[in-house]
C-alpha cells in the first residue's frame, strides 16, 4: 500500500474508509473532515465540492487498485509468488479501505450513465483478468472448474477482511503480513491438491 503524501490524500483516504464503514458514498463532508482531522474548509479548498471530492476518491480508488495488482507484472517472480503477493495486497487494501466494495457496487449501478463508473468497472475487469490468467496456471484448472476454484480463492482472501467479528480471524492474522501469506499459500495448496 502506498503511503499518504499530503492532506489531500489523507482526505481521500478517510473518505474511502468512511464509504465502506457507511456502506455508501453518502457521507457528509463534516464527517469526512472529522475523520481526516481537518476542517471543512480544507475539503472545500482542495476539492471545491463534494462531487469533485467523490471524483477524486474514485481516481484514488483506481490508482490503489492498480497498485494492489502490480505484483502480477513483476517478471522476477514465479506465477505462484505473483498470486501470493497480489492476494496479500488485495487483503491489505480491503482491510484499509472497506469502501472498496461500495465503490465497485455503486460503479456497477452507474456504469452506463457515468464515465468514471465505467472506468472503475473496466479497471477492475482488467485487473481481475490478469489475476485469473496467472491463477489458472498456478492451480492448474480451467473452464467451469477454474470458475469454482477462483470463487473459492477470492472468497477465502476477501471474507476475513469484510469487517465481521469472527473469532477465527484474530488481530495477528489481519495485521501480520507473514501470517496472511502463510494463509494464502495454504489456500493455493488446497486448490492445487484438489485435482
If you had to describe this structure to a student in words, what would you say it looks like?
It is elongated and about 55 Å long. It has a single domain (55-193), classed as Tetracycline Repressor, domain 2, CATH 1.10.357. α5 (79-96) packs across α7. It is mainly α and 195 residues long. It has 10 helices and no strands. The relative contact order is 0.11.
Number of helices: 10
Report the helical percentage.
over 70%
Query: What sort of overall outline do the alpha carbons produce when their principal axes are compared?
Result: elongated
**In angstroms, what is the radius of gyration?**
18 Å
Order of secondary-structure elements: HHHHHHHHHH
Taking all residues together, what is the mean pLDDT? 87
Largest sheet: none
The total strand number stands at 0
Report, as a whole number of angstroms, the end-to-end distance: 34 Å
% residues in beta strands: under 5%
Low-pLDDT runs: none
CATH class: Mainly Alpha
Number of discrete domains: 1
Structural class: mainly alpha
User: What's the CATH topology label?
Assistant: Tetracycline Repressor, domain 2
List keywords for this structure.
195 residues; mainly alpha; Tetracycline Repressor, domain 2; 0% strand; TetR family transcriptional regulator; HTH_TetR
Detail the topology: elements first, then pairings.
Elements (H helix, E strand, L loop, with lengths): L6 H16 L6 H8 L3 H8 L2 H19 L10 H18 L2 H12 L4 H25 L3 H16 L12 H5 L1 H17 L2
Helix pairs in contact: 1-2, 1-4, 1-6, 3-4, 4-7, 5-7, 5-10, 6-7, 8-10
Amino acid at each position: 500500500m502506498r503511503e499518504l503524501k499530503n492532506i489531500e490524500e489523507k482526505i481521500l483516504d478517510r473518505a474511502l474508509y468512511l464509504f465502506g464503514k457507511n456502506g455508501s458514498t453518502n457521507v457528509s463532508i463534516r464527517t469526512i473532515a472529522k475523520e481526516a482531522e481537518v476542517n471543512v474548509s480544507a475539503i472545500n479548498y482542495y476539492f471545491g465540492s463534494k462531487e469533485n471530492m467523490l471524483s477524486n476518491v474514485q481516481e484514488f480508488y483506481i490508482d490503489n487498485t492498480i497498485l494492489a495488482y502490480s505484483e502480477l507484472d513483476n517478471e522476477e517472480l514465479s506465477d505462484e509468488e505473483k498470486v501470493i503477493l497480489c492476494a496479500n495486497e488485495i487483503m491489505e487494501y480491503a482491510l484499509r479501505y472497506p469502501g472498496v466494495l461500495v465503490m465497485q457496487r455503486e460503479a456497477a449501478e452507474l456504469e452506463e450513465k457515468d464515465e468514471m463508473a465505467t472506468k472503475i468497472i473496466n479497471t477492475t475487469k482488467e485487473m481481475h483478468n490478469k489475476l485469473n490468467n496467472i491463477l489458472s496456471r498456478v492451480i492448474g484448472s480451467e473452464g467451469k472448474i477454474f470458475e469454482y476454484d477462483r470463487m473459492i480463492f477470492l472468497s477465502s482472501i476477501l471474507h476475513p477482511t469484510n469487517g465481521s467479528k469472527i473469532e477465527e480471524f484474530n488481530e495477528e492474522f489481519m495485521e501480520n503480513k507473514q501470517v496472511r501469506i502463510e494463509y494464502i499459500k495454504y489456500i493455493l495448496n488446497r486448490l492445487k491438491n484438489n485435482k
